[in-house]
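Bit of a strange request maybe. I'm writing a small parser for structure token strings and I need a real example to test against, not something I typed by hand. Could someone generate the tokens for this chain?
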Amino acid sequence: MKAGLKNVVPCLIAAIAGLCASWIPGAGLVALSAAAGAFFACMGACTVATLGENLGFLVFELVSNCMWEILEASVGSVCFPAHATVQTQDGQTVSMKELQIGDKVRSGASSFSEVYLFSHKMRTVQANFVEVTTEAGPQLQLSPKHFIHVSQRCDDTSEQMHAEDLQPGMCVFIANDALQLSPIVSVKLVRSEGLYNPFTMDGNIIVDGVLVSSHSEWFLDGIADQFGITGLLPSVYQAVLAPARYMYYLVGAEAARKELDRYQEQLNSLTNDNSVVTPYLDLIGSVWKILTSKIV
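Reply from user aminoacidic:
Good idea to test on real output. This should exercise your parser:
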């Protein structure tokens, strides 16, 4: 807008010049009319330029925001930030950015489960996360569409729901010597770095002291939402990924880690596109090569 107002200056100069000329004998009305015409023509151009400039700015902002929302929709609903931590079987606390395929992490009261896959492993991406603070102290950040174990009434009944649907007063399961219910005291949206989504053999993982699912929004969520069965999706997705777990078992942790590390960037993209068949076909080919090389 300031740039547009600067365009008024030459218009005023033209008008003043016309007014001065109107005092010249015999030039009166003609000069005044010319000055008025020049001024309004100049101001018309100024208005159009200024309007165009500001509309352009608004369009840019809208497009930028829309593009950001599209990017958030594609990669902002599936993961944990880089600084989130898990506990390994040897008692170490490891951040997501340090976690590796083959690591055994705490997934229950006294259970540990092996990480066999990362659907996303992106260190420098900035994304929105739901930050959940519990009465007992643990604070967890996870993507809005990631599934978490919840007891809505803080009783013996539990279910899995998206993090974005959590409300203060509901209870989540925190891991001390055993799993205990702890009321949620606050839920807010924050921004953090990194997108990591490790999958464990049993489908659960304890992150920052809170029990969550390995699973998040994927290709069946739209249908499940329509029929009101969203809470069943973690079990469904666990079944869909059974062949991936079997392939991991066939080749072993070391070979799987090497192959999946090479394939990770492509897997990030395919997961964003809700592709299911392509990763399986690619990984089946890799498994075949690994197994036949061992035989030879």
